[in-house]
Give the backbone structure.
Amino acid sequence: MPTFLLIRHGENDYVKKGRLAGHIPGVHLNEKGRQQAQLLAEKLASAPIKAIYSSPLERAMETAAPLAEKLNLPVIPRPGLIETDNGEWQGQTVKALRRLKVWRILQQAPSLFRFPGGESISECQARLVAEIEALRGMHAPEDMLACVLHADPIKLIVGYYIGLSPDHFQRLSVNPASITILHIAEDHARLVALNYDPSFSLTPPQKPKPNLQSSIQKP
């Protein structure tokens, strides 16, 4: 069945400052995020992607846009891929939320946690899996699909398909503008890559060569 490229959106100022953006409208990529989106597009320009789906939030749609331009495909917004509804925690800093007793539940037993005024982790995972299954049913087994969405949703999707307890999904890492690859067949699912950073290189940056002319001392 299809191979899913689960792409986290690029950096925005909420990510940079450690705030939960949730469903807040108007959260756009910052300069670094736009650069990350361009690099993603360059890395995936030759991939046999059949369709590009995205969370409808701006930061995800903007991350998908350069790739769509490269591949001459539309970005199809899918509400089922939207970020977890953080409810009353939306817009607050992680630093402040860590002081709350219930933060420990989110980290250690998330299957029991509900964001105040928002989704429970279990509801969010069920929504996301239903969306992935819907997309899977729309495509041929050999198709490759790009889905641009958010960190916790990607972790919850991966956790479900590899049999990881929802209470352990926080053990996974999904960085901004990373690519996670999940192949889902009729009788099994396989995690091909997790949190791949397109900017990663094993080659150390070269030191700039000295300017010989400037090193010559004037008499």
Notes: The longest helix spans residues 121-137. The chain is about 35% helix and 15% strand.
